[in-house]
């Protein structure tokens, strides 16, 4: 027990020492009293977060400020109406008295400005400025409600507050601006969460990749594998959606801060993933120079002020190496109760001035990547992605082989993939190369437009040539392989616009080729037509199988054509051209904003109409995402971006509102995409269970059956004529029959039976006598006898039976004499078909009885085929009396037309 007690005592002592050290390191918080604009006084912690505070800062004189600044922090505290700023740095100016001006700008308007002498605020390191004294400026400026009245209260809560704080320094002797530093303002709320949103979107993308790969690898029949693969969600479309959202920021307009923050969540899909080591190593090669630990140009840049400034106020010398006294900003000190964590850092060299977000460089600044580094960063991450894809295919192969060897899975599980894994590997790499085409073209063209150093531009030229020539060659080869045994025919045709219902209830215009109407003998009411030319391919071999039945073509080029309809298998060729032109607008049009924005908008509208007419995808989910959701999002984003053109000078508050609208549109697309990924995972699971008779959960069994039926129906890609219109007066009514010319007709409403010669059959007179107590089913029996008469009268005269009226008792007796299981199955099938027809025509059971009476077998089994017997007068009288008072109801009489 003694050693154990000693151990416990030692642990308690160590814990006490650690607790004391923690208390020493984390000093007790300090409090002050402050009064807000409403006159409320309260106790406040000195290390609290301010209502507005600065982030990263930069030199707003383009690197010509005569200071090297390592810290520039400013904040506004609404709870005690004070503005605080902190400035650390150094300068080469020997001796100069200064004036300073601080201003706060929010949403394009100046909300606060103040000019002051640093000596009056006890900033002794600037009073006067001396190169031998490091700059350490700290000031608290009280303000009144009138001074800060221009800042609306919503600014303290709205995400991604758009504003900046600017500090300008002037030399008194020359009255010239010698320093300017600007920092972006923040309030702590933002849409930018790439560390959280990026991994979530990446997980969903991985689910889509696994679901798509599973449908492509599972199965034996290549044709069926293609059919199931076509209905999984395309990874190409998923990544294109994310890339389209991020590259919306490549337009050369003045973006609101809220949009730039939103787009940072999708930068990973375009290869814009920040890594300090990667960016730092690329900067020098890409021509980005500067010190990331400070901003300003003291000791390295000669200020061009018209002459006289150097000799008037300071002596500038590069020999003294004043910058040697500059040290990196110290980190947060928890033991100092007056220290804070909300401060910003000097901007990375090559970044735009904080507080403005111009074009693609402004979009890239949200993820910390200089515009000059964008192409090389994207290229490196693309090579990493290609390596990950190759590793994934090889890992799946190795894992499956290992599991099969230890009997964890069946020996033939995914046998086709395991025996052709090298082909899957090559096609997966080609697919990755194909998916990255748009990103590569956009970044290379942007590199050409930026006119950077020779090295990165030369690499961009090589990558551009390889990507463009490689992808175009693959597309041409795939199309030529399928069309080499035939010829193309260009002929005139017309596009017919006619009214129709979209989604069954939205009125709209529908386009269809006039040749399609003629081929299927359809009639529509055209509103107008546009004469065009239509290119057709005529195969020399009429017996040639369709593209989705050609196993050899699917194995070689299914990664390009498998998801498109049988008649639109070539759509990948069109889409590559579309992506290239779009990349040319975004990457190559950066120097002409008007042509870039308006040209891209017109091109997107034309492409949207084209893809609607073509309707290329076989799967409904791919159609919903690529044809409708993504296209509408592109058009809306580009159209709304016109308002951000610098020529319009739009109010920044209105610009922020438009930015919120764009975020809502793109956010709905992202939510829809995530839902489609989940549905695709479920449908892929159904596809993997297509060889099982049982499916769990059971309530999805009917859904799985309908899914397979729909899949097989869509694989045929045959023209489906429009359904007939439903009656507008109410639901459940049958469709209106087509108008036909009126024909003469009549209907029998009642029949009165009179005695006939055939009633003289003596052997069944007792069957004709009415019962003493009339049966309630006598009316139905009369109806059946009447139907029997109608049935017999429809026979030729030579085959009429001797007696045309049977009673219900006779039918019951005759049916009982029939064999339970007749040897000829055609009778049962005929009876079943007649019953089905009767239910469809609304005549009930009578049609089946009529068919039995009309059949030769029924007449042979009838007891009335014997010779005639003459009944007595009493029997005839009773029979006539019965007929007179039991008239069949009109409902049971069949209508004769």
UniProtKB/TrEMBL annotation:
Span of domain ML-like: 50-192
Top-level division of the source organism's lineage: Eukaryota
Transmembrane residue ranges: 196-220, 232-253, 374-400, 421-446, 458-479, 569-589, 595-614, 626-645, 657-682
GO-annotated biological processes: fungal-type cell wall biogenesis; transmembrane transport
Chief location: membrane
InterPro entries tied to this protein: TRP_C, TRP_Flc/Pkd2-like, TRP_N
Keywords: Membrane, Signal, Transmembrane, Transmembrane helix
Membrane topology label: Multi-pass membrane protein
Protein name per UniProt: ML-like domain-containing protein
Biased composition (Low complexity): 828-840, 849-863
GO cellular component, one term: membrane
Disordered, as annotated region: 718-897
Family statement drawn from the similarity comment of this UniProt entry: Belongs to the transient receptor potential (TRP) ion channel family.
UniProt biased composition (Basic and acidic residues): 723-736, 875-885
Signal sequence annotation: 1-26
Compartments where found: Membrane
């Amino acid at each position: 027990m003694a050693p154990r007690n000693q151990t416990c005592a030692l642990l308690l002592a160590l814990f006490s020492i650690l607790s004391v050290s923690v208390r020493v390191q984390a000093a007790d918080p300090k409090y002050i009293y402050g009064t807000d604009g409403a006159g409320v006084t309260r106790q406040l912690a000195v290390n609290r977060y301010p209502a507005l505070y600065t982030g990263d800062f930069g030199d707003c004189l383009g690197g010509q400020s005569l200071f090297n600044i390592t810290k520039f922090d400013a904040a506004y505290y609404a709870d005690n109406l004070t503005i605080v700023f902190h400035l650390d740095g150094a300068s080469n100016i020997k001796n100069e008295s200064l004036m300073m001006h601080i201003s706060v700008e929010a949403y394009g308007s100046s909300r606060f400005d103040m000019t002051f002498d640093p000596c009056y605020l006890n900033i002794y390191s600037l009073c006067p400025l001396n190169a031998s004294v490091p700059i350490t400026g700290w000031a608290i400026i009280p303000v009144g409600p009138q001074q800060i009245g221009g800042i609306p209260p919503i600014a303290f809560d709205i995400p991604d507050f758009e504003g900046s704080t600017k500090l300008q320094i002037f030399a008194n002797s020359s009255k010239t601006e010698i320093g300017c530093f600007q920092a972006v303002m923040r309030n702590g709320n933002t849409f930018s969460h790439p560390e959280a949103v990026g991994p979530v979107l990446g997980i969903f993308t991985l689910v889509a990749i696994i679901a798509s790969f599973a449908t492509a690898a599972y199965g034996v029949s290549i044709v069926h594998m293609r059919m199931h693969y076509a209905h999984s969600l395309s990874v190409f479309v998923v990544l294109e959606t994310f890339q389209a959202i991020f590259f919306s920021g490549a337009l050369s307009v003045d973006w609101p801060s809220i949009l730039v923050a939103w787009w940072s969540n999708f930068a990973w899909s375009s290869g814009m993933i920040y890594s300090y080591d990667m960016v730092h190593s690329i900067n020098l090669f890409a021509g980005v120079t500067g010190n990331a630990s400070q901003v300003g140009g003291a000791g390295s840049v000669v200020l061009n002020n018209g002459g006289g400034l150097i000799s008037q106020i300071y002596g500038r010398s590069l020999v003294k190496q004043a910058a040697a006294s500059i040290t990196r900003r110290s980190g947060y000190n928890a033991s100092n109760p007056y220290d804070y964590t909300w401060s910003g850092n000097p901007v990375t060299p090559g970044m735009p001035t904080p507080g403005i977000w111009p074009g693609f460089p402004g979009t890239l600044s949200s993820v910390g990547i200089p515009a000059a580094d964008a192409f090389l960063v994207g290229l490196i991450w693309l090579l990493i992605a290609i390596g990950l894809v190759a590793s994934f295919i090889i890992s799946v192969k190795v894992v499956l082989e290992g599991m099969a060897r230890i009997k964890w899975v069946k020996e033939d599980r995914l046998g086709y993939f395991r025996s052709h894994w090298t082909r899957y590997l090559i096609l997966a790499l080609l697919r990755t190369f194909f998916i990255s085409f748009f990103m590569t073209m956009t970044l290379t063209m942007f590199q050409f437009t930026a006119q950077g150093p020779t090295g990165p531009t030369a690499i961009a030229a090589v990558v551009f040539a390889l990507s463009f020539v490689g992808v175009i060659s693959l597309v041409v080869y795939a199309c030529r392989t399928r069309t080499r045994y035939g010829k193309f025919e260009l002929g005139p045709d017309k596009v017919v616009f006619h009214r129709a219902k979209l989604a069954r209830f939205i009125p709209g215009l529908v386009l269809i080729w006039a040749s399609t109407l003629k081929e299927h003998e359809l009639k529509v009411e055209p509103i107008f037509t546009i004469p065009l030319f239509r290119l057709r391919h005529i195969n020399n071999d009429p017996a040639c199988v369709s593209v989705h039945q050609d196993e050899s073509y699917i194995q070689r080029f299914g990664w390009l054509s498998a998801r498109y309809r049988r008649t639109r298998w070539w759509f990948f060729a069109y889409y590559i051209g579309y992506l290239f032109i779009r990349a040319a607008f975004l990457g190559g049009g950066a120097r002409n904003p008007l042509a870039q924005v308006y040209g891209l908008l017109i091109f997107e509208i034309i492409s949207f109409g084209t893809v609607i007419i073509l309707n290329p995808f076989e799967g409904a989910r791919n159609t919903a995402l690529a044809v409708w959701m993504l296209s509408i999002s592109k058009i809306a984003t580009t159209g709304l971006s016109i308002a951000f053109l610098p020529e319009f000078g739009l109010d920044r508050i209105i610009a922020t509102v438009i930015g919120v609208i764009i975020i809502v549109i793109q956010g709905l697309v992202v939510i829809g995409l995530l839902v489609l990924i989940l549905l695709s995972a479920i449908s892929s699971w159904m596809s993997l269970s297509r060889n099982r008779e049982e499916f769990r959960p059971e309530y999805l069994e009917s859904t799985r059956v309908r899914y397979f039926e729909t899949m097989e129906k869509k694989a045929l890609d045959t023209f489906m004529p429009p359904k007939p219109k439903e009656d507008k007066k109410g639901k459940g009514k049958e469709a209106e029959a087509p108008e036909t010319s009126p024909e003469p007709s009549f209907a029998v409403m009642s029949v009165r039976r009179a005695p006939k010669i055939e009633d003289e059959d003596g052997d069944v007179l007792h069957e004709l006598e009415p019962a003493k107590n009339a049966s309630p089913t006598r009316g139905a029996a009369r109806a059946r006898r009447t139907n029997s008469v109608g049935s017999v009268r429809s026979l030729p005269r030579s085959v009429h039976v001797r007696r045309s009226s049977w009673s219900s008792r006779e039918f019951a007796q005759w049916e009982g004499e029939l064999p339970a299981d007749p040897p000829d199955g055609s009778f049962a099938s005929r009876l079943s078909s007649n019953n089905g027809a009767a239910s469809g025509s609304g005549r009930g059971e009578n049609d089946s009885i009529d068919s039995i009476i009309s059949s030769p077998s029924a007449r042979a089994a009838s007891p009335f085929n014997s010779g005639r017997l003459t009944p007595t007068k009493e029997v005839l009288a009773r029979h006539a009396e019965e007929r007179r008072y039991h008239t069949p109801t009109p409902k049971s009489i069949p209508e004769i037309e």
